[in-house]
Amino acid sequence: MRRARRPVVVIGSGVAGMATALAAAPAPVRLLCRAADGSGSASALAQGGIAAALGDGDGSGAHARDTLEAGANHNDVAAVRWLCAAAPDTVAWLAAQGVAFDRGPDGRLQLGREGGHGAHRIAHAGGDATGAALVRALRAQVQTAAHVQWRGGVDAEALLLRDGRVAGVRVRDGQGRHEEIEAAAVVLATGGIGALWAHTSNPPGADGAGLALALAAGAAARDLEFVQFHPTALAVEGHSLPLLTEALRGAGARLVDSTGEPLMRDLHPLGDLAPRDVVARRVWQACRQGGGAWLDATSIEGDWRVRFPTVLAACRAHGLDPRRERLPITPVAHFHMGGVATDLDGRSSLPGLYAVGEAACNGVHGANRLASNSLLEAVAGGRRLGAVLAAAAPAAGQGVHRWAERGVSLSPESLSALRGLLWRAAGPVREAVALRDAWRVCAAAADAGWQMRLAKALLRAMRLRRRSLGAHCREDRGCPM
């Protein structure tokens, strides 16, 4: 009897995971995620749009130049050129999947502008709710795809290695029951690491679990030190803070200090639309000096319920009205440029293990991601990886095997303490002694939980890069403030 083909296992239900699953047809796919209903991905919270050179006078070359400049030219140039060239087709593919992009009366896309971009090239869907629109459309496609089996409510906690090749995964459900799944390939689409910081724009599940699993199995990592901080989250109590999209500044909002003076005056040619690392450091500095930082969006015209419904709802939930008053802001951990080292096809250093989206690092973002390139990379990269997996020959199923365990999790109290430690030592501005002391804390407690070991790896990378570059600002090494 012929044995059934082992499935491709995709871990993660954000747009990167779903795009990969759809593009892998006709290969069987098992799509796994922590939340029972598939919710909780950072994709759904994304307020920015999809960057693509679709406007008159714009082109993929200009998009690439802006990407390289924002990334401090630490980017892989070939990866950047590929992504920017793939952007228009990515938007067209998403529209074909049912994403209703915002359009003008003439039917043309309404293109916005965000920090670091030299042109209006951001396509949105539902104003500042683009991520949610993408998730809805792709989920509808996945749920009707005959080759995809969706399973929520499970956490991947170990990888099966057979003769040095990743050949499966072990998952645990909410009742503590385990299941071992043999796989033709395993794809990590588990998102970023922002939830390891005290203040973040990410959901709690963006805690680096996939990266930790890959490191436990021996996969190579890349650029772990580059963590982007979004400069404008609403400064309220809590861990996951409401984001105030950069598109607000593109529409005329201004960054000011407590007296109403412009924060970005004479600091960068693009002013309030400077790359995120520059703006985040300035806001961080203003907050640490005690006066605080503010976003004044009162000059923005139009219907906020159409243009910025997510921001409006978040502000009003905290008793604020962005149409009539300035908003207190703080930087927050937002996006990880580093991750599992991959090539453009998503291959890691371990045969059989792939990564895509924020969990992966193929060099496209360099030292600092350009605004709205993240959803673009997730979709374009997922489609490319899925096509590779669809054409891949089945791997052999025999050989010596072992399980690579991620390990136990930290207690809630220890996790909270770790978040505070990383916020203080590994924020938008860093310094050698604080990094060393934080690394020592994590090294001493490495057996307490996998989050501590992951933080130790992150801090080690931050210590080893002794000069400032992009989002990695070493105050003791001449970081431009």
What does this molecule look like?
The protein has about 475 residues and is an alpha/beta fold. The protein folds into three domains: about 10-225 and about 340-405, FAD/NAD(P)-binding domain (3-Layer(bba) Sandwich); about 230-335, Succinate dehydrogenase/fumarate reductase flavoprotein, catalytic domain (Flavocytochrome C3, Chain A, domain 1, Alpha-Beta Complex), CATH 3.90.700.10; about 410-475, Methane Monooxygenase Hydroxylase, Chain G, domain 1 (Up-down Bundle). The chain is built from 13 helices and 19 strands. Helix 1 (about 15-25) runs parallel beside helix 10, helix 3 packs across helix 10 and helix 5 crosses helix 13 (about 450-465). It is globular. The mean pLDDT is about 95.
Radius of gyration: 21 Å
Number of domains: 3
Roughly how many Å apart are the termini? 67 Å
What would you say the CATH architecture of the largest domain is?
3-Layer(bba) Sandwich
Largest sheet: 5 strands, parallel
- Helical percentage: 25-40%
Label the structural class. alpha/beta
**Strand arrangement in the largest pleated sheet:** 6-2-1-10-17
CATH fold topology of the largest domain = FAD/NAD(P)-binding domain
